[in-house]
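Worked example (supplementary).
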Amino acid sequence: MSVPRLPASRSRENYLKALLQLGAEAAVPVTVLARHLRISAPSVTNMLARLADEKLVVLGPRGAARLSGAGEQAALQVLRRHRLLETFLVNVLDLDWGEVHEDAEELEHHVSQRVLDALDRFMGHPTEDPHGHPIPDRQGRLARRALAPLAALPTGSAAEVREVRGGDDRARMARWKQSGLVPGARVRMVQANADDGVFTLEIAGRRMVSGREGLDGIMIERRTRTSR
Amino acid sequence: MSVPRLPASRSRENYLKALLQLGAEAAVPVTVLARHLRISAPSVTNMLARLADEKLVVLGPRGAARLSGAGEQAALQVLRRHRLLETFLVNVLDLDWGEVHEDAEELEHHVSQRVLDALDRFMGHPTEDPHGHPIPDRQGRLARRALAPLAALPTGSAAEVREVRGGDDRARMARWKQSGLVPGARVRMVQANADDGVFTLEIAGRRMVSGREGLDGIMIERRTRTSR
DNA sequence: GAGGGTTATTAGTTACGACTAACGAGCGGC
DNA sequence: GCCGCTCGTTAGTCGTAACTAATAACCCTC
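After joint prediction of all chains, the assembly is encoded as:
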């Protein structure tokens, strides 16, 4: 009982995935989508018209686009493929978490349902990818969580890193891994200076100082006193 | 105004792979290639001209094509990807050997060197795929073996199945697996009747009767008295 | 309410890789 | 030597998805 994959075509799938990621709430303007996909604005207008034709997106005023129900389902399937693949590449094939993004980006458009299911089975149905992103289930349901940016953690508080965003920047990934900023890590904010944007942290007992940008994308969950 | 454009591309790779498989010795006529790839003859002429431009194939009289050195190398890399992927899908993901062909056919064009190497490493550098085909090594060297068709085994002789060709026919694969005709199986020709094309075999102690076509593609190695 | 800047669209092109229809070249049979 | 078959090529189209250049629509400010 698989969800059918009608739209197909690499390019369409990328548009849908981008809309899912950019259009959490509001409709996405053409320009934003164009920048994100690194495609010219006219091309985007064009493609959006086709996707609207196919009832995968709904166009609002001034060309802004949002996913239809069907479009969102399709996008979630692409996201599922992407995240399962990243998980496979890192956890099974032992590739570095910073260098798997492009591979997953490519393969997500070419893995059949059969192979995807087999991968999922082989890995024991993981629910999060190596960056801590939740993996949509077979029905396209995505766990929604309320995470806070690490930079918002007040001085003196502790938390757990749950998600590390921006997996397309390899250097960033490498730095984070280096300093232990990976999902599951415990962090304590030793000193947050909102004025000059300098943050001193303690990660697994080690001190670290970083600017705001260096922390951007690290999402945490405040742990009151929950045991593991 | 753009530069010649280097090969890659799914379609090109399929042409190269087809030429490798069809053109063992002689050059391949346009029509044969067209039938094999299920593409119209004019399209083939066209594509061959481009591949010749790029020095991947050499065109002979009457349009017949054969791979150049560079073309053969490229084709062997595609074949390596295909066979490693099939091996992975069957041996690791536990998919059925009859149903992995299409998946491998698709993925072979999209797996990066990095992922391929990781798969190879993960599987311990296999040298044969699940159908017994040798896997070209990283340098594109392909083990050449002299195997005989099972139908040529004389009455009373025993042999070992080494290779099972024609992996794109699922029904066939299923039948063979059912009757134990898989690489590594020991077979004995109980009665070969060249006249009416009826063959009686013994596979792992079980009798089986088959017509010539039912055996076509099963390649064996005569074992004199080798142990193991 | 008239500019000016941002944003979106229209129009026209390009590349790739397939297609059909129609033409031409080789070759066997008589 | 001509007929006709098979095989290959030429010519012209199509669909997808990108592009640039030019234009139009909107929004904000004065």
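Two points are worth noting when inspecting this output. Residues 2, 5, 9, 11, 39-40, 42-43, 46-47, 50, 62 of chain B lie near DNA strand C (CB under 10 Å from a C1'). The two ends of chain B are 62 Å apart (CA to CA).
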